[in-house]
Amino acid sequence: MVAPTIAARPLESAVWAALHDVHDPEIPTISVVDLGVVRSVETDAGSVRVELLPTFVGCPAIEVMRASVADRLREFADEVTVEVTFVEPWTSERITEAGRMALRAAGFAPPVRRQDGAALELSVLPSLPIADCPYCGSRNTSLENAFGPTQCRAIYHCADCRQPFEQFKEV
Amino acid sequence: MTTEARLPTRQLIQPDVPQFDRRTLKPEARDALTGLLLTMADDEFVIGFRDSEWTGIAPMLEEDVAFSSIAQDEIGHARVWYEMLAQLTGDGADRLAFHRQPSEYRHARLIDQERQGWGYTITRRWLYDTADSVRLAALAESSFEPLAEVVAKVRREERYHLMHLDKWLERLATRPGTPRGKVLSALKQLAPVALSVFTPLPGEERLVEAGIIAAPMSELADRWLATVNPRLTELRLRCVPEGRPPADGRDHAVPSDAFTALWTDFTSVARLEEGVEW
């Protein structure tokens, strides 16, 4: 994800700006840009091409995002192509700082920042993930279920403010 | 798969797959690759449907949610493998998933039977997930890049399944009486068929030669045994898998009643009206 502010490419910058208007249909407070789902934007005379990375392989929301991105960009070019690609894996590290704040504001704990890439190896079972309570900031929380209402979310409970909350999973 | 008409499948995988195929894959390697992908797709599809049968009836609410989510992951993985197959062969992902006869599926015998009780489900899923993780590891550096790319993503999801299943296996195995008894009896039934996940594939030596997979299935079976047996011993579960992968571990020429029933269920909507576009 390259910062989209190069003056020499005003159309590309405008497209990136417009993509901030497209939100995750499952967590509407975060834009597809801040979620890190937008991999690339390419513009040419009369055409725009965008690549999206799904958060999970079977994520049903990606098709909604694809359609919403195409709709939003229609004003910029006659030919808008939105491709979903696995050429690199979406990881929770792709969520921007603004995205992490948006998640917290909506009552979601942002994913833990990974210390060690080796933890991703399947043979190494991750220790139970942790999350800070998005309501009171406490670390005195426990994982209730590694699987939540959508593929990308886990369920926690805060022992201090006694609030259940969800975390955007670290993947 | 419901949006295939609106969203051409070629857009779901990186666009240069066909060129890669034509230039680089020898026909024999391509045939072997389609065989491998079919086994992976069918495994994930079948176990995903079996997982989904727990929705609403799992022993606790959290497991309703967990198994539904795991099922969604697995069906998602199956979908991407079916779509990759469709690209390689010109077939259709929907046809592969829903319009084959039961005898044409290539899922491992390990996951052929009913889900049975919770102890059986957990034990079988643990055996499958540990085997799947060995298979995925052998594809992580695949020379067929579209495969390696999806595997990288899939592994990040599967580790959550493995973590969950391993905790459940431990929980059941370390509770004396009924829970431990259920695991032991499931292992006794499943140990003889567990190696079916590593059933040798036709032409797999071509896949190894071409660097598509790191090792033949027999070697992956050894790697898996070296992983699971210490863990089973640690849990004092003496009934550990042994032996060699069976030659017919994915042969369903005479489909089981259990699989025919599942097939009847998961194809029921697709068969309602032939040729209809969803």
Helical amount among residues of chain B, as a percent range?
A: 55-70%
List the uncertain runs of chain B.
1-22
Largest sheet of chain A: 4 strands, mixed
Which percent band covers the strand fraction of chain B?
A: under 5%
Q: Taking Cα atoms only, what radius of gyration of chain A do you get, to the nearest Å?
A: 17 Å
Report the β-strand fraction of chain A as a percent range. Answer: 15-25%
User: Strands of the biggest beta sheet of chain A: in what spatial order?
Assistant: 4-7-6-5
Tally of extended strands of chain B?
0
Describe the overall structure.
The complex is a heterodimer of chains A (171) and B (278). Chain A is an alpha/beta fold and 171 residues long. Helix content of chain A is 19%, strand content 22%. In chain A, the strands form two sheets. Chain A has a four-stranded mixed sheet with strand order 4-7-6-5. A three-stranded mixed sheet of chain A has the order 1-2-3, with helices on one face. In chain A, a hairpin with a 2-residue loop joins strand 1 and strand 2 (47-52). In chain B, helix 5 (118-137) packs across helix 9 (217-234). Chain B is mostly helical and 278 residues long. Mean pLDDT of chain B is 90; it is low at 1-22. Chain A binds chain B through residues 54, 56-59, 63, 66, 83-91, 120-123, 125-126, 144-151, 155, 169, 171, and chain B through 3, 7, 11-15, 62, 65-70, 72-77, 79-80, 133, 136-137, 146, 149-150, 152-160, 162-164, 166, 227.
